[in-house]
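Board notes (copied after class):
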Amino acid sequence: MYNDKLLSKTQEFPCIKDMFGINTPCVIAGPCAFENYEQADMIAQNLVRNRINLMRGGLFKPRTSQYNFQGLGHDGLEIINCIRKKYGLRIVTEILDVRDVEIGLTHSDVIQIGSRNMFNTPLLKEVGRTQHPVLLKRGMMATLTEFMFAVEYIINEGNKNIIMCERGVRTFENSVRNLIDISSIAIIKQETSLPVIVDLSHSLGNRKDILQPIAKAMVALGVDGLMVEVHNNPKEALSDSEQQLSLKEFDIFLSSTEKLLNIT
């Protein structure tokens, strides 16, 4: 059992407003991967127009097949530096290795630890030794207890700036990419003061047609934010093309949920 004293409701953790000065539930949006400057700039313009402050986007992509696009890596650092400076957006990007923690500290506003690395204890400890905000994604086959253990690795090193991300778990169900575990979200919100967001794109996959009602259900559940993938030309995206929203689809999504979201 995870340490209920360490993570109990009586223990105060920074909320998203404490970390970024924005109200919740918030929206984190952007491409699965940064591909080039023009793509990033076009998406960033849309986010700014829609008053979105947090932009997600990967430079290092952990892919099942080595033949798939692995991300721009270090070559893409200048892109996110330009986007941060030009638009004032806060960048959420994933790192895969303890050797890249310094990159996360220098070139991003939030370090993302992805699903595959939830069990990477050296990486969890390393980001725990910083005070940088960390977005920790649940492992695709991790139990809630294992998810909480991963959080403890970070907290025990001194970093309490943690955002938990439910991105769905792998089950026998194949109508969606991953199944959102709503009971775990409710338990986390009831038993701890840690902020929780839901990655709608990685959970629903290509079922963009049910994005709006699921988003409304998640807000009703009390989540602190929603993450969605947005691309200026999803059909030509180099990764996860079927689940990324076009700019027009993203506008429609926001207009349908604006009364529920605190977009400032």
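Comment from the instructor: The chain is about 35% helix and 15% strand. The beta strands are 26-30, 54-56, 90-94, 110-113, 134-137, 162-166, 196-199, 225-229.
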